[in-house]
Design a protein that fits this description.
heterodimer; A: alpha/beta; Rossmann fold; 2 domains; seven-stranded mixed beta sheet; five-stranded mixed beta sheet; 13 helices; 15 strands; about 20% strand; B: alpha/beta; 12 helices
Chain lengths: ~375, ~300
C-alpha cells in the first residue's frame, strides 16, 4: 500500500483518546516486527498498550528489557537482523540509553523511538519538560516534535516512511511533552484499522543486513576503527559526513509526507511566536489574546528539529522584527537553534521558559511579547491589513 | 549450510584475492569442519593484529573452527582485544557499545527467528571478561534469566588488556594491576557459577591449552542454544603483554591455570544431556577421539 494513502487519503474517524493511546494506534498500523519495552513514567502506558497489540497478534515479538540501555541495544540488534522495531522512553531513560543513539545512527538503522519528555535532574521530577531533546540534537538521529496526540500518531507512522528511505535509513526520534500529550484526551482522527504500512524490506537498505544471507560475508556491520592511523580517521570522518548527508536527504521526504519541516500561520506578520511541541498549543492561545489587544502575531510551528528547517526559518522571518521562542526547558535549546539559523539574531527573544513540570500560562507568553515590544527600537506591529 | 553468501559472481571470481578464493574453494561454509581438521581447510579467521602469543587470538581461532554452522553464524562482540581477530573473520560480526553484547544478541536472535523460521541462525556472543562480567553483567545475566537462545563465550584474560592492563572483575585476588595499585581486593566474579543458577542449560570452563576440548564445548554450546536455551563457555585466554610473561609461554600459563583455578568443569541440564546423547548416536555425527595425552 502506498503510505501516502494511509497518511492523508484514507478516510479517518474521530476518536477521543490519550497521547499514549495514539502511540499504540500508530504502532498498530506500522507493521512492527518487534517492540521492546522498559517502564518509566510517563512513557509506560504506551508500551503497555503496545504489549497488548503483541498479544493480539499485531507484532511478532515483544518483551520487557532490563534497563533502557539494554532495550536500546536489543532494538539495535533486532534492527540489524533486518526487521522493523519500535520502542519508547522518557527523560532519565533517554539519558540511561544515551550511548546507543549514536550507535543507531552510525549503523544506519531506521529505528523509530518515541520520547515522552520529562524532567531529568534533581530534585526528582517526573513532570513534563523537554531538556532531553537538547542532549540528542547531535547524535545523528532525525527528530520530530509532536504538538498533540494527533501529531504523535501521524509523526510515528510517517517516521517509518522517512527513516526507511534508501537514501536516508536513519533512526527517528518522535518527541512529545510528557503528560500534556501522553495523559490527556483529545480528538484524534484515526486511519482505518485494517490499513498498515508495507513490511520493512531489508533489500532496500543501503547497508547490508546482518543475517549471513547478504554479502559481503566478512562484514563488520559496525566498524570500530580503533587503529590509530590516518585511514581509520578518514573512514570515520567520511562516514559521519555520510550520516549528516543522509539527514539532509531526509528533508525532501519530510516535505512529502509531513507537508514540510515547519508550519507557518500569518506569514505576513512582523512578530512571531516560534515553538515546537506543546509550546505551540500555548502559543496559539497567546496569539488569540494578543490579537484581541490589537497586536498581530504570526506562528512558526517547528515540526522537524533534525534536520532543522534553517532555510525555511530564514525565509519566513526575513521581514520579521521580533521572534519570541517559548520553551518547556531551562536551557532554551530551540531559541539557540533559531538564533544560529538567522541573521540579526537580536530579533530572537528566548522565553518564556518553564520546567520541572510547570505549566506555561498564556499570560507568560503574552507578557514576554509585550515586554519585547517595549524594548527601545522595536517596531510596533499593530494590526495590519488582513486581520 | 551454504556457500551462497561467499560465492562471487563469475565476473569477479578471478579478481578476488587468493585468500578469498581459498575460502570459497576450501572453507568450512559448505561442510562440517572442526578443531581436529585445522590445517586441512581454509579457516575463517584471517591475519590479525593481536600481540604475539595472544591467548585471545588462539581462542578465537579455535572457536571459529568449532562453529557447527559458520555459514549461518553471527557473532556479537564488544570493544576489547577480541575485536582484532573477530573483525578478520569470514562471518557477520557486530561490535558496538561496550557491554551491550547480550542485549544486542537477544534482539538479533529474535529478529532472525522471525525472518528465518526454518533455519538455525546461531547468534554467538564472543567478548572479554570486562565486557561480560563487569560493564555488561546485567545484560549477560538478564539474557540468561529470559532464556534467550544464544551462546555466550567469555574470553577471560583476567585483565582489561586493550585499554592497558587494568583490573577487571575477573582478575585474581591480590593481583597488582593498573587501577589496582595495592592488588585486587576481591576474588574473581563467579560468572560460571552464576550461569548455573541463572538459566543456562549448558556451561563449560576451559582453557586454550585444550583445543579439542574447547572445540567440543563450543560446539555443544551452540547446538544446545538452538534448541533449549542459553549456554555459556568461559575460556581462559592468558595475556602475555599485560601479565608480563614471554609470548611463547601462553600454553604453559594456561596449563598451569588448569591445575590451579581454571580446572575443566562442565554442567548441563537433563534435557541438554539427553540432546547431546541423541546427537552422538546420529549417523551424521562422528565420534570425536579423546584429547591426545599431554606431554
Amino acid at each position: 500500500m502506498d503510505p501516502e494513502y494511509l497518511f492523508s487519503e484514507a478516510p479517518r474517524r474521530q476518536v477521543f483518546i490519550t497521547g499514549s493511546e495514539a502511540v499504540a494506534e500508530a504502532v498498530k498500523r506500522a507493521n512492527v516486527d518487534i517492540a521492546i519495552a522498559y517502564p518509566i513514567t510517563p512513557q509506560s502506558e504506551s508500551m503497555h498498550l503496545v504489549g497488548d497489540l503483541y498479544d493480539q497478534g499485531y507484532l511478532k515479538d515483544y518483551y520487557r528489557g532490563e534497563n533502557e540501555f539494554a532495550v536500546m541495544a536489543a532494538v539495535h540488534g533486532a534492527s540489524l537482523g533486518g526487521g522493523r522495531v519500535f520502542t519508547a522512553t522518557s527523560g532519565p531513560g533517554t539519558l540511561r540509553a544515551m550511548e546507543m543513539f549514536p550507535v543507531w545512527a552510525g549503523s544506519r538503522q531506521p529505528v523509530v523511538c518515541a520520547f515522552m519528555c520529562r524532567g531529568v535532574s534533581l530534585p526528582p521530577s517526573i513532570q513534563p519538560e523537554n531538556i532531553e531533546m537538547a542532549m540528542l540534537l547531535d547524535v545523528g538521529m532525525l527528530m520530530f516534535h509532536a504538538e498533540d496526540a494527533q501529531d504523535f500518531l501521524d509523526m510515528i507512522l510517517k517516521a517509518y516512511a522517512v527513516a526507511e528511505q534508501p537514501d536516508v535509513h536513519l533512526p527517528v526520534g518522535v518527541f512529545a511533552d510528557g503528560f500534556f500529550v501522553t495523559h490527556t484526551r483529545s480528538a484524534v482522527l484515526l486511519p482505518p484499522d485494517d490499513l498498515k504500512l508495507a513490511a520493512y524490506d531489508p533489500r532496500r537498505a543501503p547497508v547490508p543486513t546482518f543475517d549471513m544471507e547478504t554479502p559481503p560475508i566478512r562484514l563488520v556491520r559496525d566498524p570500530l576503527l580503533n587503529k590509530s592511523n590516518f585511514i581509520s580517521y578518514a573512514a570515520n570522518a567520511s562516514w559521519h559526513q555520510e550520516i549528516a548527508a543522509a539527514a539532509e536527504r531526509a528533508r525532501k521526504h519530510i516535505r512529502r509526507y509531513m507537508g514540510g519541516l515547519l508550519e507557518v500561520e500569518d506569514p505576513a506578520a512582523v512578530v512571531f511566536l516560534a515553538a515546537s511541541g506543546t509550546a505551540v498549543s500555548q502559543s496559539r492561545e497567546a496569539i488569540k489574546v494578543l490579537r484581541a489587544e490589537g497586536i498581530r502575531v504570526g506562528l512558526i510551528k517547528i515540526m522537524s528539529i533534525r534536520p532543522f528547517p534553517v532555510r525555511e526559518i530564514e525565509a519566513v522571518t526575513a521581514h520579521a522584527d521580533l521572534i519570541v521562542v517559548p520553551e518547556f526547558n531551562i536551557g532554551g535549546w530551540l531559541a539557540r537553534e533559531i538564533k544560529a539559523a538567522i541573521d540579526n539574531n537580536r530579533r530572537v527573544v528566548g522565553g518564556p521558559r518553564v520546567f520541572g513540570g510547570m505549566t506555561m500560562p498564556t499570560e507568560l507568553i503574552v507578557n514576554e511579547v509585550r515586554n519585547a515590544l517595549s524594548r527601545p527600537g522595536t517596531r510596533q506591529p499593530g494590526m495590519r491589513a488582513g486581520i | 549450510m551454504s556457500t551462497k553468501i561467499i560465492t562471487p559472481v563469475a565476473e569477479f571470481a578471478e579478481l578476488l584475492p587468493q585468500e578469498y578464493k581459498d575460502l570459497v574453494a576450501r572453507g568450512p561454509h559448505g561442510g562440517r569442519r572442526s578443531v581436529r581438521d585445522l590445517g586441512t581447510f581454509k579457516e575463517i579467521v584471517d591475519e590479525h593484529p593481536h600481540c604475539a602469543g595472544c591467548g585471545v587470538a588462539l581462542a578465537v581461532r579455535l572457536l571459529a573452527a568449532a562453529l557447527p554452522s559458520p555459514a549461518d553464524t553471527l557473532i556479537v562482540g564488544t570493544p576489547g582485544c577480541s575485536f582484532f581477530s573477530l573483525v578478520q573473520t569470514a562471518l557477520n560480526y557486530s561490535n558496538t557499545a561496550f557491554g551491550n553484547q547480550n542485549a544486542v544478541a537477544a534482539g538479533l536472535k529474535r529478529m532472525l527467528a522471525i525472518r528465518f523460521p526454518q533455519v538455525h541462525k546461531d547468534v554467538v556472543v564472543v567478548a572479554g571478561d570486562g565486557g561480560i562480567a563487569d560493564i555488561g553483567l546485567d545484560m549477560t545475566l538478564h539474557s540468561w534469566f529470559r532464556r534467550e537462545k544464544i551462546t555466550t563465550v567469555m574470553l577471560d584474560n583476567e585483565v582489561y588488556a586493550n585499554t592497558g592492563g587494568q583490573e577487571s572483575g575477573m582478575s585474581r585476588l591480590g593481583r597488582v594491576l593498573n587501577m589496582a595499585p595495592r592488588g585486587k581486593l576481591f576474588p574473581k566474579i563467579p560468572v560460571f557459577e552464576l550461569a548455573k543458577v541463572s538459566g543456562c542449560v549448558y556451561g563449560a570452563r576451559v582453557t586454550v591449552a585444550g583445543p579439542y576440548r574447547l572445540g567440543r564445548v563450543v560446539r555443544n554450546a551452540v547446538l544446545l542454544a538452538r534448541e533449549l536455551g542459553p549456554t555459556y563457555v568461559q575460556v581462559y585466554a592468558p595475556c602475555p603483554t599485560n601479565m608480563k610473561f614471554p609470548p611463547d609461554q601462553t600454553l604453559k600459563a594456561a596449563k598451569e591455570a588448569e591445575k590451579d583455578h581454571y580446572s575443566f568443569e562442565e554442567f548441563m541440564s537433563t534435557e541438554a544431556a539427553e540432546y547431546l546423547a541423541r546427537l552422538k548416536t546420529a549417523p551424521e555425527e562422528r565420534e570425536e577421539a579423546p584429547e591426545p595425552a599431554k606431554p
